[in-house]
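chain below, 116 aa
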Amino acid sequence: MSQNTSSNAAREIVGKIAPKLAQLNDEVLFADVWERPQLSKRDRSLITCTALVAMGKTDQMKSHFPRAIANGVTKDELVEMFTHMAFYAGWPSAVTAVMRFDEIFGDTLAEAPSNK
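prediction:
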């Protein structure tokens, strides 16, 4: 399932169950907060992915990791963030994020960083 298909399916479910939450997601989070010029979308994506790792929110990683790549964060930077977060958010959170990263990008890991 592609990022857009996954995001759209989640949006549809949220809209059916919690329409106000879906409206706030669309009109406040993505139409306002994500568009504020004080941070680039790249930086917002890296911050969001870091928060997801810290909180162990693995379901959200499947849409935000690809979005981060689309917004200019590199796979190398995501992997480095996992390593960094192991010391701040805990080893299990970092390893879980690596496993989710592999599920999302495993077929394209030839582009992933080498062990340096």
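Residues 40-109 form a domain with the AhpD-like fold (CATH 1.20.1290.10). The chain has a mean pLDDT of 90.
thats it, cya
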